[in-house]
Amino acid sequence: MNEANIEKFKSRFAYNGGETAICENYDSAAEYLVGLAGRQKNGEDGSVRLGLDSRRRVFLSRSLGVGLALKLKTALERVAGLVLADKVSDESDICVASASGLLVQDGALIVDSGRVAHEETLLGGTSVLIAAEEIVSYDNMSAFFEASAAGKSSVRPDKAVIIAGPSKTADIEKQVVQGMHGPRELVCIVLRIHSGEINKTL
Amino acid sequence: MYVPCIINHLMPDSAYSIINIFKKCGVDFSVEEKQLCCGQPGYNMGFCEHSKPFARKFIDLYKNLECDYIVVPSGSCAAMIKHNYPGLFPAENLKWLEERVVEFNRFMYDNELYLKLDLKYKGAIFYHKSCHLLNEMQIDREPKEMLRSIKGLRLFESETHQNTCCGFGGAFSAAFDNLSIDIGISKLEFVIENRISNIVAGDAGCIMHLKGVAAARGYKLNFHYIADFLDLCSN
Amino acid sequence: MYFFRGGKSVIDIYVNAEKALANKALQANLKKATATAILKRNEAAAISETFESSRDAAIKSRDLSIPRLGELAVEFTANAGKNGVKTFVFDDYESARAKIAEIIKSRGADFIVKSKSMLTEEIELNGYLKEYGIEPVETDLGEFIVSIAGEKPSHLTAPALHKSRKEIAKLFNEKLGMPYSEDVEELCYFARRYLREKFMSAKVGITGANFAVADSGLIAVVENEANARLAINLPKTHIAVFGIEKIIGKLTELPHFLNVLSKSATGQLLNAYTSVVGAPDENKERFFIIVTKKRFEIAADPVFGEALRCVRCGACQNICPIFQRLSGHGYEFTYAGPIGTVLAPFFLGYRKCSQLIDASTLCGFCKSICPMKINLPALILEHRFRCGADPAAGKSLYRRVKKIFSMGHSLVMSNSYLSTAVAPLARLYFAAARKIFGKNYIPLWSRFSKRDFMGLSGKTFMERYFKK
Predict the structure, then answer these.
(1) Which residues of C touch B184 (CB under 8 A)?
(2) What is the pTM (predicted TM-score) of this model?
(3) Does residue C191 lie within any of the structural domains?
(4) CATH of the domain at A153
């Protein structure tokens, strides 16, 4: 993915209510997650989490793959007051899963429900989707559907969930409230690991 | 030059404004004494049959008239004539209507006649894009560019309040007077909130309605049909 | 109009408008909400590189599919079957409702979670299920509000558009026992917690479908709240109910529809969640219920066929000056606004809709904003033509008076002699009116002096120009 596409995606994703973080290495991605856990308000207003201690809970989806999950886990474990949850639930502050595709003009992510359980992008306070270095990016939705019709996409369209923002509603006086039934925040972490970095961590 | 009923009966001075403009621009024109209403009221009320006699007479009167254009100073009438007459008489070849009938704004703009008028004005106006002019005839750029060319004029633009109906709607204004008046009030209140006292409209019907609403509510606003305004600015 | 009441057999727009206009809070809400929606739509449409091209592609797709809906439904059913989804097609509401109730009952559910679906409103599913002892739980916030208030949705995409936060705060306090709060966030999160329990224990989830794709047997559901995703994926059984007009031919055409819908409906580049749904997960099951009522008749109509292009985005409602004042409830039909005015006569008949089809200024903004470029004003006008020819509708006093007006106008004004007599007579009338009322009073127009008339006092242009 070139620089211009990343910038465009970032601004379009923001228009839809999502936040993008571009991380150059795993530590910075982990650091970013820690920052997220600290700032998000899940539980404080009693919206989802009730009667729990103040420790932040992070869930790492299997869809991240063993390598990436391990690296994030190692980085996160260094942070005090943070618990790595072993299952996804509304008690999670952050659910981290992997995105399979990126729609640049639409500012949206394609999630493969064959790999990522629906709960992993629906429950908890903040949904984080990782766009790994090798992620496929499409100009727009049409390009994705054309590619899948030609058998050239990794995600089957009937398993595709396209996510373009946090759960929200404007049903009361058009005032936007995030976190209606799903996550209150949606974050995309674009991993741009330099080849040197990959060699180092390998 | 065709004279719509509202201009003929209620705003005869507007017809003279057009004549003044034509004279200043050197347009050779005539008015047909035998011309009648275009028949739109019956058509829009749902009685095509009632509009046929009007269409018949219009066609017979202008078909063989020697002229390059039949200028219709109303989006409503022009849409009726150009878009609906062919459907009333499907067996006839009415292509000439499409070619020769032209709405006043488009006539002035396409032939660059407005450039011949040395247009000047001091102050701000709100331009009401009359719906049939805008949505039926797709005439939006023409009046806008003409108004923008007026020296010293501040054209007040609003995405939401310019792109709305005034509430007239012909028979609608009588059948649903409550809605019709309320739509008009919204428009006028917006203009007043923005401290503008001059409204220019692209169709005379809108003026008839808005003026009525303004008078009943005691709003001090001046209404100008676009030809009146162009004529005013060229003096 | 004030003088010709329609009675119960007619949707009395005039009376409904009187009520709506008198409700100042409603007027303020509606005007603000619709104006915001239009601005957002315009902004998103302007950002998009592909909005206009998708519009054209989507129209092309629909124009191919509308005449062959029957065939496409067969293809869809077959392909959905290959995915392990059972599809049922019904023409009448009763059979569709009965089938849905049967599925729910046989799964042992006494309540269901439901996401927004206009079709379930159309077939009045909720009332039917309640009679069967099944509690339908609406989970879209707007629908939830409307359902606990015992009302119907008033807008295609914003069902509770007519309600203010004060009203909702009162409602939640009285019906759900929430401590009184007018804070919108608190109200939303209260509803979230309340509905969360329902989602977690529901056995059956019912959703609509925004589009159904014939060549692959899939449906697409778009939303922002995530309640449809929860209703589709958490319960063991998922039922999607939709009208046959939702079927499009090819999967590659789907993105064009999604592209135009998100911008037109809520002014987003894309909705928060777009689910493409086919084969059920392991140990789960899925049903598609398709309703065809009146759709074939509309599709076969040489003029009205294009009305089925509609993607139910609600943009025509937002921009309509009548809707902005009347609110969805004033239309007394499932689908409100310009598209509702076009569809209603097919379902309710001309007699009932004789006022409704006249309640339009034919301003044409709906036609410009409609992503599918449906010529709504022309279709409304076509209804007026047909209504005039309809024997049952023609008998009402209102229609008769209208016809006399139109005929009178035609007879007098199209006659070169009579039409010249109009001006002198009018001058006499207005002179008299000014003496009696002190102004240019016209009974139907002036509405108890809320609008003046310019009147005509001087000579007409023709009289002056040709020096009579």
Answers:
(1) 451
(2) 0.93
(3) yes
(4) 3.40.50.10420
Q: Is the minimum CB–CB distance between A147 and chain C shorter than 8 Å?
A: no
- C 205-234 residues inside an 8 A Cβ radius of A: 216, 218, 224-227, 229-230, 233-234
Residues C187 and C86 in one domain: yes
* Residue B216 to residue C368, Cβ atoms within 8 A: no
Number of neighbouring beta carbons within 10 Å of residue C200: 12
Pick from C358, C365, C413: which is nearest to B175 by CB? Answer: C358
Residue among C147, C87, C155 at smallest CA distance from C114: C147
Number of domains making up chain A: 1
Is pLDDT at B125 greater than 90 in this prediction?
Answer: yes
Say what the pLDDT of residue A41 is: 53
pLDDT in tens, B129-186: 999 999 999 999 999 999 999 999 999 988 888 889 999 998 899 889 999 999 999 9
Residues 67-96 of A with CB under 8 A from C: 90
Is C308 within the bounds of a domain? no
Residue C107's pLDDT band, with cuts at 50, 70 and 90, is: very high
Q: Residue B62 in 3-state DSSP?
A: helix
What secondary structure letter does DSSP report for A62?
G
Same domain for C271 and C332, yes or no, is no
* Residue C302 included in any domain: no
DSSP state, residue B115: G
Strand partners, A82: A56
pLDDT of residue A51: 42
Residues C383 and C449 reside in one and the same domain: no
pLDDT tens-place string over residues B75-91: 999 999 999 999 999 99
Beta strands in chain B (DSSP E): 70-72, 101-103, 120-128, 151-156, 198-201, 222-225
Residue-number span of the structural domain to which A145 is assigned: 3-201
Measured CA to CA in angstroms, residue B49 lies from C69, C193, C382, C409 at distances of 35, 61, 13, 12
ipTM over 0.90: yes
Q: Does some domain include residue C304? A: no
In contact, C371 and C315? CB cutoff 8 Å: yes
Range of the domain at C378: 1-47+314-412
Could you give the number of structural domains in chain C?
A: 3
User: Which residues from C are below 8 Å from A140, CB to CB?
Assistant: 49-50, 255, 259
Residue B36 backbone phi and psi in degrees, to 5: -130, -170
Bridge partners of A189, per DSSP, are: A21, A130
